[in-house]
Amino acid sequence: MSRTLTQWLAHLEKLHPIAIDLGLERIRVVAERLGLLSRPIARQVVTVAGTNGKGSTVAMLEAVARAHGLSTACYTSPHLLRYNERLLFDGAEVGDDALIDAFERIDAVREDTGLTYFEMGTLAALVIIRDRAPDMAILEVGLGGQLDATNIIDADVGIVTSVALDHADFLGTDIEKIGAEKAGILRAGRPAVLGSRQMVKTVAAHAKALPVSRCLVLGQDFDWQHAETGRWQWQRPSEAADAGGWSLPDPGLPLDNAASALTALVALGLSLEAEKLEQAFSGIRLSGRMQRIGRYCLDVAHNPHAANYVASQLAQRPVGRRVALLGMLGDKDAEGVIDALWPVVDDWLAVTLSGARARPGEALAEIIRARGGQVLAVVDGPEAGIDWLEQHSQHDDVLVCGSFFTVAEALARLERGEGTA
């Protein structure tokens, strides 16, 4: 009897003894058996790597491509509420049946090759994308770049959004080595887009050494600036037609990433139209990134770089009092995140996440108290945190952040309602 999707996902967690096992040897063997490496999975492929900003870049690439009439597939991770969120076709989640069929096909050929949860999911996504052959496939790197499972596919353009310290247990703490790892998604003879003004030197050095066909760098080859209220101006690559820049709606997402997405599409040869860009940027919504549900703002920021962006956005929205519901994993820089959010948070609610990697809420509370902050309570889990806020802090603005797990559990609770104001 065929497994349900839920049963398959539980099965995938047991296939390999190490949850995160970077390297392409195992997945490449199975990909070759599936015929994934013998022909392109889509007419064009964009791969997005970086410490922060990958998800928003993918969302804007997809929106603009679809507005210009292209069919799209987007593979991202992790998900918030449903595994199906990881694979979208023209903006719609893939169905259970397609995922189950892909898992069965992979299982039939992998033989004794152990694959991680992420590797199996990546292969399934690639199989489905190859079968449907969209105009554009947009792949988000899971971890790192060069050794990430998505990197078995050659990208027609590679985007590196940012390089900062995160996932130190797997990528280390040498920022230049991390940059070189992320630059591993770039391909010789194909364009590269570097979407950070503080990009570490090893990324551009890797692009030059390949060499890529063009290396487009934010602040040098393309840029953006604020325009009138609620709008921004993209300054296109200088050799492109109409390079003076267009005024576009602010999507509520980092504009470095917006400019990078547009530049990558130009590098692919897409002829952009002002009316279609207006349409695309007016309708972008991304769950868990500065997402508003009533008085709650949810963002998956889990490192200082991302938390600084969140703080800069909240600083533009003064409120009477703001409480942060914070839950983090033990391998993340909690001190750095707390320090980044400190100027825009009045009081804190520390929560304990579930799982072996979780940092106890009391440990977060100790960091906050040591800095002179007020911890309203320490509770077990984000859902309990929302319940506490609904009972004790009904009129405050609330930031929910620190982890995908924190946002996912809080989002599930808020979507159910259950007495929220």
Notes on the protein architecture:
One of its GO terms (biological process) is folic acid biosynthetic process. Pfam families: Mur_ligase_C, Mur_ligase_M. Keywords: ATP-binding, Folate biosynthesis, Ligase, Magnesium, Metal-binding, Nucleotide-binding. InterPro entries: Folylpolyglutamate_synth, Folylpolyglutamate_synth_CS, Mur-like_cat_sf, Mur_ligase_C, Mur_ligase_C_dom_sf, Mur_ligase_cen. GO terms for molecular function: ATP binding; dihydrofolate synthase activity; metal ion binding; tetrahydrofolylpolyglutamate synthase activity. It is a single chain. The chain is an alpha/beta fold. It folds into two domains: 278 residues, 3-Layer(aba) Sandwich (UDP-N-acetylmuramoyl-L-alanine:D-glutamate ligase), CATH 3.40.1190.10; 126 residues, Protein-Tyrosine Phosphatase, Chain A, CATH 3.90.190. Helices cover 38% and strands 17% of the residues. The strands form three sheets. It has an eight-stranded mixed beta sheet with strand order 4-3-2-5-1-6-7-8, with helices on both faces. A six-stranded mixed beta sheet has the order 12-13-17-14-15-16, with helices on both faces. α14 packs across α15. The longest helix is centred in the first third of the chain and has 16 residues. The radius of gyration is 21 Å and the shape is globular. The model has no long low-confidence stretch (mean pLDDT 91).
Short description:
The protein is an alpha/beta fold. The chain is 38% helix and 17% strand. The model has no long low-confidence stretch (mean pLDDT 91).
